[in-house]
Specification:
single chain, alpha+beta, Alpha-Beta Plaits, two-stranded antiparallel ribbon, 3 helices, 28% helix, 4Fe-4S, metal-binding
């Protein structure tokens, strides 16, 4: 599953600094995760770093975008080629 940031976001910037794929950017009111760039840290770390560091637990799985580990690995490899 892809990740998304909920309205609980306090815009503390911590997640942005931790994302190895530059998938997180400031939206109109809160930060947003670009599902085309988010690999849930597959290829970089064992766990999603943004989820680990979020002080208000505002980053959750997005039920509308389902991805398995194999797809996330392919996305990671594609991003590495860019």
């Amino acid at each position: 599953m892809a990740l998304k940031i909920t309205d609980e976001c306090i815009c503390c910037d911590v997640c942005v600094l931790e994302c190895p794929n530059d998938a997180i950017s400031l939206g109109e009111e809160i930060y947003e995760i670009d599902p085309d760039r988010c690999t849930e840290c597959v290829g970089h770390y064992e766990t999603s770093q943004c989820v680990e560091v979020c002080p208000v637990d505002a980053i959750i799985p997005d039920p509308d975008i389902r991805e398995d580990r194999e797809n996330l690995q392919r996305k990671y490899l594609r991003l590495q080629q860019e």
